[in-house]
Amino acid sequence: MTAYLLNLATLATIFGILAASLNLLIGYAGIFSVAHAVFFGLGAYAGAQVAMLLVPDVLLACLAGGAVAALLSLGLALPALRVRGEYFVAASLGLQMMAVTVFSEAHALTGGHGGLVGIPLPTLLGFDVSAQGVFLTVCLAVLALILLAIRMLMRGSFGRSLMAIRDSESAAEAFGKDVRQLKTLVVVLGCALAGVGGALFSFYMMFVNVESFTLEQSILIMAMVIIGGTATLAGPLVGVLLLLLLPAALSFLPFIPPTQIGAVQQFIYGLAMALLMIFRPAGIAGQSAGRR
Amino acid sequence: MSAPLLSVRGLDKKFGGLAAVQQVDMDLHPGVLTALVGPNGAGKTTLFNLITGNIPADSGEVLLDGASIRGRSPHHIARLGVARSFQDLRLFARMTVRENVLAAIEHTAWLWQPGGRSARRAREAAVEQALERTGLTAQANARAMDLAYAERKFLSVARILATGSRIWLLDEPASGLDLHSRARFVSLVRQAAAEGVTICLIEHNLDIVTELADRIAFLDRGAKLAEGDPQDILRDPELIGIYFGERRT
Amino acid sequence: MLFLQLFISGLQTGAIYALTAAGFALIFGATRVFHVAHGATFALAGYAYLACTDAGLPWPAGALAALVLAVAFGLAMDAFIYRPIQRHEGSFFTVFVAAFGMSIVVQSVIELVFGRGFVTVSSALTMARQVAPGIYLADIFWVAAGVAIALFVLVTLFLERTRAGIGLRALSENPELLRAYGLSSRRLSAMAFGLGSALAVPGAILTTMTSGLQPAISHQVMLISLAAAVVGGIGSLRGAALAGLLLGVVENLVIGVLDTQWSAAAGFVVLFAFILFKPSGLFGQAVTR
């Protein structure tokens, strides 16, 4: 039972990193990316390769994962600078679909469909951090650092600039905001953090393959952010807990056969997304719409 | 009269085959309030958009302090001290009143602003002052989307006020204001002009124009038909005829 | 010869994409709703046809059931999801998320009822014969091509010649004009959803007979429709149809050059390139950033 709870907690922490980083794009900057799992995957592959080829150091792998994701996030920044709304969603969908194919075909880097197997046990500055509880602590520390950084940045001028662009791009420009630079910066930052989450994920699973980085995963992360509430610090975390605890809770219900849990879970979060958009578009933790 | 701060020379813009702005010359002088007057579709807002770089001009020049700013991006022109408002306000709806004004004066597109604590204090002071002058101090923590109509209009002015810009381009800032708010608005703009701000405003209400304007530029179908003293322009029966919808032949 | 064969199967796939994408474009053009649950409409129609055939009903009954279910779903989305959202806010993203949520719901229901695997309906139409050396063709190719062309002509005639059709085209551009015509925008929007959803039905039935169905097909169809609508120029019906055809052909031709795995990605490379370099698409008006 303890092992089960620790497992759930570690996964929740990693998804917390993903949701918090996607919230930077969706909630604060109004960039509706449906390709977040791509950067999660890039970080996971990069982290796994570093661990397998160099040293299995968590810090180094996280840096490598973040760097690779940041570098390739320009593939997302480019359309974000050129188009908005429907067009950007379509572009990010396109990117997601291309990435899945590349992930499953670039055998040398990703191991193809079989994935990368045999990722060594993680260390941190020479200390073994592979025990489940210890690794959870490391993940929690990373999440806490990231949340702290996001909180500081979003309460400062960077956050205000992003929200200004989200609410009115033309007015933001009229008040001296360099929209291109700000958008590029937030895309790089958000994707890099997803890459960090990916590196942690690869250590935790000790195995990565393309199944974890598909469109379905991107949508799950998006659903976490939206159901929890965009543009708040707590919202994405609430969403993560709800959507991760859901299958766990469902598995305790005797009348649902275990093979159907996935479909039932999808049914519930799909319905939750639709109903929330109708009745409470700001999400569970978000501020409700205007009083007027 | 002193040298113009902002000059527009032979500005041209066509949309499809339609001339939105044609061969417009205009000078804006420090401390002088110029009103752009003309019927709907005369090209007044387009002229603003050409000056602020929101749309590229086909030909002509925009000079700030004698140097060309044509072809610069909107954020660059804003940083040079040209501030504008929008007909539909374009407030940062989900941010608070204070954040709206603060965001308007934080220009650096990096993770933090330069200048450290003293610059930060100066910005905060500028925000509080702008809120006080526009009467929004009590609403500072309300979200822009929750404000009443007149308050939203004043917020759009507060954003401009805080920037300390030398040139204000105001697009129908007083439309829809009740009499009391209108009086407050007029004194606010007068005070800014007296402090040396160069103001150009688009306004349909001729009462406000007479009350405020030092000069009037009259636009119709993209061309400037006349410019001069408010009395002269508003007494010209031909221009007034155009303004109230009697088309020229 | 291989390329000719691939080109022919590309045309067949493309005809299905073209019809489905035209439905999506019709809905978007008239109502400005980015109806991403269009893929769910397609899946529902396909599975309805499948269920009827499995129950031993003749094919016209299955087709009718598919049509009824598709149109009903489209109308229900309009009435119960999009309208309530547009009443209070209606930002693009809110609509998108709600539609996406509903398409996940449909996918999971299908999975619960029909299972996760591939299912097909066998038909004599799909028996391939050699028509030229190395070229195989099944009768279903002619059915697909004929249905696509006939429906496209019919829809074009409807949009250009009838009062309701002209109203549909004017809906997004000039709502005032509609009042002058005495048409209700509400009824027109329902008509767009009904007609657009109906256009997904033939493609769904043909797919049931050829490549088969699986619950995830709603996602795939949504992506293709979306890609075709963007590449064709959002809101342009003939653009979407042409782009759908193009995507079908590209997907198949790629198999001749690279592995089959790359065929799905090829379409999205086209999509991505269009968004970066020509976001207005083949026939769309220029979009401002």
UniProtKB/TrEMBL annotation, chain A:
Annotated membrane topology: Multi-pass membrane protein
Transmembrane segments: 6-26, 33-52, 58-81, 88-109, 129-150, 185-207, 219-246, 267-286
GO molecular function, one term: branched-chain amino acid transmembrane transporter activity
Subcellular location: Cell membrane
Pfam families in the cross-refs: BPD_transp_2
Keywords attached to this entry: Cell membrane, Membrane, Transmembrane, Transmembrane helix
Primary residence: membrane
GO cellular component, one term: plasma membrane
Domain of life: Bacteria
Protein name, per record: Branched-chain amino acid ABC transporter permease
Species this chain originates from: Teichococcus rhizosphaerae
TrEMBL record, chain B:
One GO term (biological process): L-isoleucine import across plasma membrane
SMART domains listed in its UniProt record: AAA
Annotated ranges, domain ABC transporter: 6-246
Pfam families: ABC_tran
Family matches, as PROSITE patterns: ABC_TRANSPORTER_2
Listed GO MF terms: ATP binding; ATP hydrolysis activity; L-isoleucine transmembrane transporter activity; L-phenylalanine transmembrane transporter activity; L-valine transmembrane transporter activity
Keyword terms: ATP-binding, Nucleotide-binding, Transport
InterPro entries: AAA+_ATPase (IPR003593), ABC_AA/LPS_Transport (IPR051120), ABC_transporter-like_ATP-bd (IPR003439), P-loop_NTPase (IPR027417)
Highest taxon of source: Bacteria
Any one annotated GO CC term: plasma membrane
Designated name of the protein: ABC transporter ATP-binding protein
Organism of origin: Teichococcus rhizosphaerae
TrEMBL record, chain C:
Subcellular location: Cell membrane
Its membrane topology: Multi-pass membrane protein
A Pfam match: BPD_transp_2
A molecular function (GO) term: transmembrane transporter activity
Annotated transmembrane regions: 6-26, 57-80, 92-114, 134-159, 188-210, 264-284
Keywords from the UniProt entry: Amino-acid transport, Cell membrane, Membrane, Transmembrane, Transmembrane helix, Transport
Main location: membrane
GO cellular component: plasma membrane
GO BP term (any one): amino acid transport
Family membership: Belongs to the binding-protein-dependent transport system permease family. LivHM subfamily.
The protein's name in its UniProt record: Branched-chain amino acid ABC transporter permease
Organism ancestry: Bacteria, Pseudomonadati, Pseudomonadota, Alphaproteobacteria, Acetobacterales
